[in-house]
Amino acid sequence: MAPSGTSALRPRQALAWGLALLLACAEALAQGEAISYRLVQGADGSARPAAEQLLRHLAEGDIEAASKLSNVPRRRYEELARYREAVGESEFKRVYSRFFAPANRVVAEVAIGAHRLLVWDLGEAGHHLAGQYYVEIEGRFLMDDVPGETRSRLSRVLEAYRSGKLRF
Length: 168
Prior knowledge:
- The chain is an alpha+beta fold.
- About 40% of the residues lie in helices and about 20% in strands.
- It contains six helices and five strands.
């Protein structure tokens, strides 16, 4: 969702707003809470191919195909359509195509059960660390658009990594 009354966003703002659609808000790290997770190494059991496919659809402006890669496709479609309407078709495509820039890369994939967190280092945005959430359903990874306890734990892992309390 873009701020109202904004006709043109600067590149970093546009990227941040685009990420807001893909990312859940990270929660504060719970004091003393131990979270059991594992790092996904390699392609086996990884959500990265699903994320790349989703981002390719978005970079092409195909929100229908992108929304089908969500566990709540209708809601995802509506959010993407609102964002595209707010920033315009060309800016929408540009924002999502930036994920493929060499400066922006996945630095870790964290798993808790069937849930995954992809941690992005957005080099073009001052090395902001961002997360994308996925869940494996029937052998297929989908963007996880359903809040829940596991996703909250993954958010706390992301926040701990951002704050330097955790290193991968």
